[in-house]
Write a structure and sequence with these properties.
heterodimer, A: mainly alpha, elongated, B: two-stranded antiparallel sheet, two-stranded antiparallel sheet, Nucleolar protein 14 homolog (chain B), rRNA processing (chain B), ribosome biogenesis (chain B)
Amino acid sequence: MSQQEKPMKISKVLRQKAQEMLGSRKYANNLLDIMRHFDTGADTCPCILTLEMIFTSLLKSSEMFIEIVPLKPMERTAEIQYREWLKQIYEEAWNKMVHCLDHASPKVATQALASCMNIMAHEGRYPLEPRSSQEHYIPFYRLKPIVMKIIFNRQSSAHLINKFQEYLVYDDMLFATWKLLPSLTAKTNPNDVYIMNFLMLLEKLQLQQNTEGSILFSTEEGEHNFIYDENSARKSLNKVWNCVMLWEQGPVTLKQLLIVLLERVMPYLDKPLMLTDFLMDALDIGGPVSLLALQGLFTLIQSHNLDYPNIFAKLYSMFEPEIFHTKFKARLFYLSDMFLSSTHLPENMVAAFAKRLARLALIAPSEDIIIICMFIGNLILRHPGLKCMLNHPNGGSATNDPYIMEERDPVKSNAINSSLWEIQSLQNHVLPSVAMAARFINTPLPSVEWDITKVLDNSSDDIFDKEIKKNHKLIALAFDRPNGCFLNRGEIISQYWNF
Amino acid sequence: MVKVKNKKRNTAESVNDKKASKNKKVLNPFEVHINKEKIRVLGKKAKNDRGLPGVSRAKALQKRKNTILPEYKVQNKSNQFTDKRIGEKNRSLSADEKSIARYTAVRMNQHKKKSIYNLADDEVLTHKGQTLSEIEKFEDVPHSDDDDDEVDGQRNSGRLDSSFVEDAHFGGGMLKKADGAKSHKDLIEQLIMESKKRKAEMQKQKMANSDLTDKLDSEWKDLLPIVTNSNKKEEELAAAKVDDYDKVMRELKFEARGTPSDKLKTEDDIAKEEKDKLERLERERLERMKGNVFDAASTKIVHRSADDLDDNFAYDSDTPDVTLSYNDGKSNVPMEDEDKEEENENEDVEEEVEEEELETESEDDMSDLKEDEESSSEDEDIPIVEAKVLSKKESATKLINGKHKLDEPEEDETKRSKLDIKDPEKIKEDLMFRKEMMEEARKELPYTFALPENYEQLQELLKDKPSHHQSVIIERMIKCNHPSLKEGNKDELGHLFAYLLQHLSDICCDIEDCKDVKHCFDVFACMTPQFFDLAQLNPETSHRSLIEVFKEKQAEYRKKPTKFPTVEVLLYLKLGSCLFSTSDFRHLVVTPSLVFMEQMLTWCKAKTRANVAYGLFLVSLIAEYTTLSKRYSPASIKFLCGILHMAIPKVTVRQIKVLPPFKHISSSLVLAEQVETFDNPKLDVTDLIDVKDFDDAFRIKAINVSLGLLKYFHSNCQPLSSCPEIFETAFNYLSQLPKENYPESLSKSLNSFLETLDEGKNNRTLEYVVMEKKKPKALRLYEPNIVKIFDRKMHKSQSKEKAERDKLLHKIKKEKKGAIREIRRDKAFLGRVKINQKIQSDTVRKEKVKKIYAEAASQQCALNAMDRYNEVRSKKR
């Protein structure tokens, strides 16, 4: 009870003190009290809030403004002295608040960030020193420590970055961040936390101007003369990226790097072909990383005329049973659908893909089997030569599957001489939706391809929901009355379990 | 003489008919008018080339005169006289002839059809103007009581007596009057007095009479019993005398006859009905198992020629085309061998039937008696055996249809028999024990239970009761509140089902140690038959509530998809397999629960002992679900592979790959040392919540169960073409297991399974996938339009009905035109008649006026003449 009341009380007291201090200069020493309380480390949040309130209103009323007239010695009036004192405290408080960004509690850290940004915004609107009104004023010296703190944090600063993202809708903030970034990029190998923070921040930064075009450091009337310079932002991006590419990457950061690269950076790089080596190295790592690298390569091939000799073999090697348990399987299916969309590919290679997918379907989770069935169907639709896998020209029988699963080169896997027995077997799958999906090989193929994108994100939960929603009139009951919990026929449980 | 009996005779047709005969006269050439023909067509029949305008006009006129004219004349008249007397209008007949004609008519009338058989009705005999039948009625005219003694004139009530009348009415002469000095007034008074006295007397007598009658009646009533008794005795005596024949006959006559439907069913009949029912259900189940959609694909057409006309003419290609030929005196077609084979088969089947019988006997104890009787009756009742053989045959064909390899049933059999050796004994004991417990419970508990209104009531009722007591309570509750007893009971039982589910979940909620789990499963085992009954009584509600439970549990699981849910989920899933037909292709309850189980097996992490046990329970549940449908579940095989992987010692640097959620390095099930024996091959339900770490006993059990389940799945999947691929991983893992550490029996079965897998991989025949051949579509043929006879006219090609209709329409049009013309002519005719009448009446009037004028003129003339005469005379004077 008392614990709950305490912060309430303190925040009230702090607020009261601040009000008094703002009300008249008599209580100027209240500020010192607050600072002292802040130093104790207790009640950081209310202190930050109080300081934010004090300084924003001081900035608004220009009480810290000191006019410097050139060629005129500074007068030592009491007023100026007071102002200088205020300014000194302000700097002190600012440093402390920025320091709070490192705070272990994410709540405090986020609050500190919000307060800092707010104060900075006010300073931008009401500068401490006289400025010419022509150019747009951005207090870089305030922003830099903030961003630095975010990136050089001891722990992952995802929460801060998320908060910071809220300010990136302002064009001038975005631009300032881009301007700052090159100076903050490490030239040598940084640690993993830094890389992760940096990449996360980079993921949030967009290069193009926001559509709303709102400005953070504008006067209250909304006047500003800020112009977003996309070219210079782009230059900074390239600069930053050149540094980033020099870093040594761990497996986790590499994945993040590739995601950022694919989603943010790639389209704006000056020489994307420089990435080829990097992507090819990443491709050999295997797992999700190589999948992402593959996507990058695909972009290069598609829009930059890269010629990569063995890309299909790489794609082929990516179809491993483990892929179904990663987050990237939808991406893989999407990508391979794109890769194999050309109708000019050799048939035996496409057949190898179909056959491999069919093999994987034997052990895949049910939702993936449905995707695979559609995928194979689409492949056969695109390459009518593959129909021999569904409908063998001569019939007959074989003693063994001609397809060689272990062969790494799809062309040599001899899949075209095989048949899709796996799909046939899957017609006996225990789930009716899967069994129905596998029945496509019994009927003539449709003229239009199946739409894979619709089912890519399906999960087994969706299948469950669908089955629940199915409305059947008939409720088929068992007709053997069980004795105890043993069925008269088909009792398996009691064979393996003691009750 | 025209009979006006029939109005129809007066119409136009009749007149026309009459005249028709007259028209057959030779045509008068002056009356004939020849119609000129403009274009002459050869072979055309000319109907209207000549006509008789004058004659036909006269004919029409005559007709109108006979028809419309009389109608016109009687118009606006409400009635008319028709003289029906025979010969009255005929002047040529004399009076005698008329009477003769009338008499004949009467006689003729009597001989009409109606009265032809009334032989006696010819003449009615009369007497004094009354018919004899009337006289002979002999009706008893009712006499009033007052008139009873009418004979006595003195006492005649209404009337005055003669002496009085004599005196009073006629005076009686002067002499008599002198005697009596009675005045008129006295006389009247006397008269009144007398009549009153008489009336009173009569009244009195009447009363006495009625009293007497009453007395007589009562006395008769007293006597009545004596009289009847005596009668009865006589009758009894007579009955005793009835001879045996009559008795037997009467007995036969009155013997109660049963209706055919009431025929008592013998045990055999009941058993047979039961069997038929089961067979029907089984057939339906199989249909559902295949899935409705699949039917079209699965019913393969064996052979279709391109010339097939789709007329269901089947070319019997199954029978081999062997032409009969003789080689060394032997025909190449086996003639009797086949029959022999069939017989053999039958024998086999019979044996199998017997085997099965035995099995069922041993398996379910409850129906022991019935089965025994059935098997004893088997020897006598051949038809039943035959039916059984047939059914067995069906199942055999079913097996073959299901693409089973030939060795499969054998294996099945061996497996079964193996099971039979081990399990039934135990199960039997268990069941017997349970039965005894139930009996005890039955004795202890009250016989009726009301249905609980809410869950709390049920909870109260079942609280702290042992499981068999709970079972009996529910059983009685169901029996007392059977839907057939009361209207709303069905819904109430549906609620009971939901409450019981809740009860189950509540028991499972507070599972803390092994004892609780055992208790929980015990309660579940006891309740399952009750659940089954409830589900049978109200399938809709029960399936809905079970689905709701699944939905809820799945939603809970969804929050943490890598963790196995609580034990109760297993119970619900097991319940699903007990209550519903698990083999359906798609089922409202079974399919979602299968999806749920697959999900759990695919995503949940098996780290601890409880997790492994939970997963294995799920796999065995899936095995149970797919027992009949033999479907393939990748998730369960994957899970079993993961369990096997956990048992492989990871000594080498080389990683053995395993699919997530299993870890590459996990080796908690590895059996480090050699274990000689293992006493308990089955897992315990207590393992499901055991928090202990893995021990050797559990490791062996887990591997044993996994191996058993793998074998089971393998036998199910064997007909699938990619069976070896499915079991490839399992094969790899199995061969890497440290076999030497396992007990001998286990390692032996492991080796044998490995051999089977290897064999299956090496000796397999893969039929290439071939799509079903489609019948080529025939080109559409256009038939030439051939017209039989060309007659210049373009006949519209239209349907018969349409042609008929057109013809009729044309006729109507023609008739309408004709009718309008006729009406117009009728009107003209009537107009003529009217004008004639007018003219006639005018002339008559003119005549009259003329006559009057003439008379007046002559009168005037006479007057004038007289005037003139008078003038002359006066002048003369």
